[in-house]
Amino acid sequence: MIIVLQYALVSFIELFIFMLLWSKFCLKDENNWLKNIFVILIEIIILIIINKTNVYVDFLIRCTSMIIFIKIIYKRSLIRTIVEFIVLSCVNMILQIILISCAHLVGFSYSGKYVMRIVFLLIELICTIIITRCNFSKIAKKVIKLDSKILYYFVINLGLYIILSKFIWEYNKNIILDNLLVYIFIIISMISLNIFLYYYIIKISEDKKVLEVQNMYKPILLDIVEETRRRQHDFKNYLNTINAIVEVSSEKEVKNELRKYIMSLKYSNDIIENIIYIENIIIKAIIYNKLCEADRLNVKFLFNVANNSLDNSLNDYEISDILNNLLDNAFQAVKNATKDKIVILNICEEGNDNIVEVKNSGRTIKPDNIEHIFKRGFSTKKGDNRGYGLFNIKEIAKKRGSDIQLSFEDGYTVFKMSFNQISKRNKNSKRSKISS
């Protein structure tokens, strides 16, 4: 009976450490310690029941049951639960290796006896609490939150290291303890190599996405260039028209007629001129595309862009996703309105934050839909593949440590996002304003 209680206490501390890591790094938004304690107690019961089985079967059942309980209780994706379990198991294993190494350095040999295991686990618990309180825990959360197939391959490698180490430990822990420094060097080298390859592949993947977005907008940029050339070609026609106005108008009328004609030219030329001054080619192409759509739908489209204000916060493909989705929704909301068909885009800076704000006239979202519009698959429009625009934007915001705000101001529906500036650059204060 005493042996069972000792085993239960050791298992409780081990599971508590593991759930503490999981709750801080993976379950922050949905964490519930009553559920966590329930998982721990059920796991202890299972571990006591299978205690006398083969160590490898015990290990397999322990891992499988833990993953299944977390998946069911927190209603999480099975793949994501497995990924998180493997990553956190690796963190837990590294902590234990560090503690055993430190003990060896000061002359204490790890024997695996009950009292020593309790002492080591309590020290590990203290270290875990310190880790979860440190700022670098935010970095770990971002890594675990990455939704990428590349991450899955990385985690599979980690999982193989953990399983191999566990089997060696259970077979004969002295193989590891007698060669601890060599073992640590091998593990650190393999994990470091995997991390380097992972970030290298991620960088290549990010560059590929940026290139794809830039290639997608090349035709629109060519249209802008063609439009500029056409206006340069028309310059002679403008002069001929001015000359004709002077010839056919009376002295009283000529001043007024010239003013009217020049104002119309200025309005027309401002459209292309202000777009040209936008330095980011993705923003430039999106705004030009939306100006053409605004002209077709008879929508008044206003924009105010501070150059470089998003370049140090977002990648080009993220800028494309955010602006296209927000502007598409705004145009969709006003296109059938009978009056005041207005859409406004603001890209600017507020303090140390970069701001993206899209407004459309009218209160175009029903109160009942407000709490659902950012959920995956929710849409007020009919058809397949709907309801992913705002969800994708919210995912980008989470990845960048930001959020998206919805408000209603002065007869406008407003979506606003703010992003921290990653680095300071020399900024051109040129702003562009246009209406269509």
Automatic annotation (TrEMBL):
Residues 230-423 form the Histidine kinase domain. It comes from the Bacteria. SUPFAM superfamilies: ATPase domain of HSP90 chaperone/DNA topoisomerase II/histidine kinase. The chain crosses the membrane at residues 6-26, 33-50, 86-108, 114-131, 151-169, 181-201. Keywords: Kinase, Membrane, Transferase, Transmembrane, Transmembrane helix, Two-component regulatory system. SMART domains: HATPase_c (SM00387). InterPro entries: HATPase_C_sf (IPR036890), HATPase_dom (IPR003594), His_kinase_dom (IPR005467). One of its GO terms (molecular function) is identical protein binding. One of its GO terms (biological process) is phosphorelay signal transduction system. PANTHER family: TWO-COMPONENT SENSOR HISTIDINE KINASE. This is GHKL domain-containing protein. It comes from Clostridium estertheticum. The lineage of its organism: Bacteria, Bacillati, Bacillota, Clostridia, Eubacteriales.
